Amino acid sequence: MRITKFKSVLYTLLLCIVLTLSGCFKKQSAGDESDTEINPTAQTGEAASPTTATTAENAAPSKVNVNLYLEISNGMKGFMPSATAGKEATTFQNNLNKLLSEVQDGRYVANKGFYLAKEDAKSRPVLDSVSYNTIKSYIVSGIKDDVRGTPLPAMLQAALQNSINQEAVSIIISDFIHGPDPRDQGQFISLDSDIRSSLREAEHQGLAIAILANTSEFFGTYHPAVKTPELRRTLNGVEIPYYIWVIGKQQDVQLVTNKVLRNLPLQQAYFGFEYESVPFSALLKEKAFKPAGIVYCSSRNADPCTSVNLQPGKNEPVEFTLGLDLRLLPASMQSVDYLKRNLKVTGNGSRPALVSVTAADESIKATPDLAKYSHFVRVQVPQLTANSGSISVQLPQVSPNWIKTWSTDNDNNPVAAPKQTYKFSKIADGVQALYRDQSDYVFNATTQFIKAD
Q: pTM for this structure?
């Protein structure tokens, strides 16, 4: 009897232990699943933070494939005079030698190809694939061949298609002086539409284009597009423009401009660049950006803060600062001067105004909560016209002023009118036409607001 009772107690005890262990195992498994598989955003139903979304969306590649095209027409010879003892290299030679080296040996380029762009006897573009040493020899020792200039649209189309086939970024170096077939002078009139047609694959495949303009001393025979009163002129050190075009996926183009080209000229233009979102937040608790008036974050623990409660007083407008991370933008668009000239602040249900734009200094970069932002925009809201609405900081798509300055309708005498290229603004118009359906803004950072009680 005692043995039977003992077995019963023992069986009950063992059963409890098994059930307890089973419960612990299930709880631990659920905990593991929540740590590794469940997205907290999906659980709460809240939107992912702009920082997370933008980082994933615009994650830059670590390496890109590059095809570099150098036009070697007679008109380019003056940039690359033959080297002699005691003679300094031109700016073109110095800059291109560094670029070639970076493409060949730099750690940001995976596969690379070097091409000499010219035309054949029937005015068709030819892209000669050459070695690094061969193209370098042209840069430092000059062009020895007698080569007619390739019509711009044909050269661009051939280079772009070649790079698309090889999944590479195109780097095209040329003076971009249009030299159409002498039998078809009407190409001067249709230059913009011809440029657009030649680059249509860039539009169809969602590629972006960066245009960088520089000048270099020119020694030798200059071949203008306008042939009167002189068919050609001999120049001895006059500054002549040359251009570097970079065509590819937006992130790839930025890697090339930031890491391969590096020291960019002041003259930069970007087409097809657009950001669905940039990281931003209203900074309402930071001493460096103390707000004015009644304004606080709609959600106490929100980070980033993208919705605010505010109430401008009759004699006390609300002022607060938005931190933005613009480090993914092209370098020229990050310039404070550029942003001051071009940033717009608009309101729906409010009448905001732009007060100031500043970039992060060393003290800001050393502050953990602020180091994630590169720029700071101070906004003033003197009046609300609705109980709720939005305040947007926008960077419009603009055509840089330098394009018109560097363009001319008569390039026959570059001594009298230096640093100008024949109808360059028309060339840029052809590129811009590729992106006619693009958003009007490079980015739009919108803060929601509710009128405070």
A: 0.82
